[in-house]
Amino acid sequence: MNRLRESSPQRKRQKVSPSLTNEESILYNLIYSKKDIGIWTGDMKRETNLPVTVFNKTLKELMSKSMIKEVTTIQNKGRKHYMAIEFEPSKEITGGNWYTDGKLDTDFIAALKDVCFKYISKQKVSTLDGFLEWSKKNGIFNSEVTPTQVEDIMKTLVLDDAIVEVTSNGYGDFASIPVGRVCYKCKSNVKVKGELKYGLVPYIPCFACPRISFCSPDGVVSPRTCVYYDKWHVLEVIHI
Amino acid sequence: MVSQWGIKFAVHLITNHFGKIVAKVCETLLRQGPLTLELLIRFTELSKEHVKNSLLVLIQHNCVQAFICEGGDVDESRVKTQYLVLFDNILHRPRFPKFMEIVLQELDKHCEKVLEGLLRDGRLTLKQMIDRASQGASQENDSAVVADAVRENLCKLLMARYVERCPAAEVTIVEEEIITKKRGAKSDQNFKAPETTIQRVIEAAVPGDAIRFSLTADTGCNSDEETKPADINVAENNEKEQLILWRVNFEEFLRYLRDKLLIENVRARMDDGAATVVRAMLEATRNVDKRVKIENSVPLELDQLFTEVIKTENGLQMTMDRVKAYLVQLGCSSQISFAYTIDLKHIIHLARNEEVESIVLKRYGRDAYRMFRHLSKEKQFCPTDKIAESTLVEKKEAPKLLNRLLKDNYLHMEKLNVSVVGSNKQTQLLMWRVNQPLLWEYVLDEMYHAALNLSLRMAFEQEKDEEILNVPKDKITASEPLQKKYKRLQNVCLLLGSSLLKLDDALMLFHDF
């Protein structure tokens, strides 16, 4: 979670080092011109036209002088990507707030989701500000969690159908929330783990079967000879 | 237009109920559209007798309607009766137990018995209903008492509109002239989808509401003609009354099931209070609009709605302000002279979306489910990266999942070539969206397919263990292997039967509501 503190990109002024060789300055200027997007070694070789050995040596030199840094891109983790030390990788490179080393921080997201969901379940109804105030007051997070991040989490919980976005009408559960304010409410048909209770067809044998398109009385698979049915019967008998 | 699996499922139902010959006639009508007797004979390659009898069976069970199409360039002497298959009525056949359950709940078991006869035989006269009841009743009961009881139960069913007079045996429709309208903004605004032949025939065949649900025999005259009470001879009238054909009014049952779905959907999404308001609104306007497929509820003034709300147990504690607040939460509009109306189409669409989403969740997992819901809400094309960002799905995983959904027809994709700022390079963006009407049609077809497969499997299971059903019960309990086999068959039938019932609920949601 500490990574969140370093997430805001800060640009510093370009430092021009007088001790650069001609090749070094060609390469450095190219990398610097790409700003927070950075550049792949393959593109660098093509654009500078330097011989491979010279190119490798120059790149190493710039690295040792701490003028450039290697960054991971989410598009292609195998490719070596470089950027001037003054820049922080852009959202296109890192993937955004929720990515660490080019990988989606699923543990962090899951932890935040869990906290938000449990808070709303306990409160029944909550606004975004209400949650932020509570988390600040109780020191829930080690690092600062921005309102935008919490909003992202609330939105994904809505998309998960674990909570719903509603407008307060000032009655019942909404009594403490001003009328018209957007708030979040737990869905009544959601179990603790956010598992859905309803849905008429997904658990019906055949409909849930991935082979349904091949299955017909005269098809590759036939309902009369289908072996998956026995599986369904066994499963259902256990439930009964 | 009925989908391919829809036709196969309907033909399977008819084969099960009436045999292969009737099913062949039915399939030809489903695939070719309305046909004359001669054409039916030619297409089915069956004898005239077979086709005629099949049509009679289908008409008796309300699956076919005869009509004559007049007008146009057709020579009047050559106008012939055509037969139109009623696909919806075929699909209602597996729903009969549901309809009987409704009557049992809303009325009583005697009415249920009358309804059972109508469902089994398709069309019956009062006399036939009385004969049926007399056969079942003990001999001590006087036949007059039985007749009175049947008459009374039929009256109750008619009052509740669960039974109606049979439509005209043959109706005449006039071929519509094709009018070419000027294109323009004004004509677009007033555009209304043209009625299909099925709609026109059904509309023409149904008698006016006044006689459709009336037991008293003002027969012999058109619904538009006035009947003079003095002219009616009581004995003659009774005789005519006995000859009127009655059938089940499927529309009313579907409306009942639709209302139930609407109320339960609102309860699940909101709370009991909102469900009470929706129930009150539907209850109060029940007799005004009897159609199943309506976009909005009939406008109702707040006072009238409140009176209906406080009649219910949950509504007793509600104040007028609270009812108003629920109406706002339901997104009700009150533009028409302080009368409120609920957007029923919106609730149905939400229910359909929930169903499709739950399928996506089960088949493709939670990440795909989130992306699908995001696209459903956006209602526009979205690029891959934007979808992954908004749903917190790994950017490398997102295209794979989206492609799987695309392959199975759950998403629509367009490629967009865009030039990169500051360079001459062109890059291709993949734009995704959910095309709801097309997707719903596709899901409905999948449902027909699953219903057909389930039905076939159920028949196979019963056929396989047929002998065990004929073994006496005490013999089954005495032998352990037999008992095990019997228990398995019971469980299989229970699972497949309940699955079919659930699937049928979903079919109604996508096809009838």
Automatic annotation (TrEMBL), chain B:
<keyword id="KW-0240">DNA-directed RNA polymerase</keyword>
<dbReference type="InterPro" id="IPR055207">
    <property type="entry name" value="POLR3C_WHD"/>
</dbReference>
<protein>
    <recommendedName>
        <fullName>DNA-directed RNA polymerase III subunit RPC3</fullName>
    </recommendedName>
</protein>
<dbReference type="InterPro" id="IPR013197">
    <property type="entry name" value="RNA_pol_III_RPC82-rel_HTH"/>
</dbReference>
<keyword id="KW-0539">Nucleus</keyword>
<dbReference type="InterPro" id="IPR008806">
    <property type="entry name" value="RNA_pol_III_Rpc82_C"/>
</dbReference>
<dbReference type="Pfam" id="PF05645">
    <property type="entry name" value="RNA_pol_Rpc82"/>
</dbReference>
<feature type="domain" description="RNA polymerase III subunit RPC82-related helix-turn-helix">
    <location>
        <begin position="10"/>
        <end position="67"/>
    </location>
</feature>
<comment type="subunit">
    <text>Component of the RNA polymerase III (Pol III) complex consisting of 17 subunits.</text>
</comment>
<feature type="domain" description="RNA polymerase III Rpc82 C -terminal">
    <location>
        <begin position="152"/>
        <end position="334"/>
    </location>
</feature>
<dbReference type="GO" id="GO:0006351">
    <property type="term" value="P:DNA-templated transcription"/>
</dbReference>
<comment type="function">
    <text>DNA-dependent RNA polymerase catalyzes the transcription of DNA into RNA using the four ribonucleoside triphosphates as substrates. Specific core component of RNA polymerase III which synthesizes small RNAs, such as 5S rRNA and tRNAs.</text>
</comment>
<dbReference type="InterPro" id="IPR036388">
    <property type="entry name" value="WH-like_DNA-bd_sf"/>
</dbReference>
<dbReference type="Pfam" id="PF22536">
    <property type="entry name" value="WHD_POLR3C"/>
</dbReference>
<dbReference type="Pfam" id="PF08221">
    <property type="entry name" value="HTH_9"/>
</dbReference>
<feature type="domain" description="DNA-directed RNA polymerase III subunit RPC3 winged-helix">
    <location>
        <begin position="356"/>
        <end position="417"/>
    </location>
</feature>
<comment type="similarity">
    <text>Belongs to the eukaryotic RPC3/POLR3C RNA polymerase subunit family.</text>
</comment>
<keyword id="KW-0804">Transcription</keyword>
<dbReference type="GO" id="GO:0003697">
    <property type="term" value="F:single-stranded DNA binding"/>
</dbReference>
<dbReference type="InterPro" id="IPR039748">
    <property type="entry name" value="RPC3"/>
</dbReference>
<dbReference type="GO" id="GO:0005666">
    <property type="term" value="C:RNA polymerase III complex"/>
</dbReference>
